[in-house]
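User: Sequence recovery, please. Input:
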């Protein structure tokens, strides 16, 4: 299974990284009352990207699979409601 190789390629855009770093900075300031430096922000953002992105990606795939499975079940039942009585 090639999931490990493809998961390693999950990357945030520069804009997404900047937004994440800003959220990290705000979290530390609001919740912990601490200032956090740019290097620490970057390290935490990279950690999230490396460790959390694959988890979230896999969860999204599982959710999509469940949704498609439900839609296929609905399609099957909807299909048979179209049948006409042959008598």
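Assistant: Recovered sequence (87 residues):
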């Amino acid at each position: 299974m090639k999931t490990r190789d493809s998961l390693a390629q999950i990357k945030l855009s520069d804009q997404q990284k900047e937004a994440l770093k800003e959220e990290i900075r705000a979290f530390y300031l609001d919740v912990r009352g601490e200032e956090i430096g740019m290097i620490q922000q970057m390290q935490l953002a990279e950690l999230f990207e490396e460790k959390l992105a694959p988890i979230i990606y896999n969860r999204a795939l599982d959710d999509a699979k469940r949704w498609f499975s439900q839609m296929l079940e609905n399609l099957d039942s909807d299909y048979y409601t179209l049948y006409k009585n042959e008598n």
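The mean pLDDT is 86.
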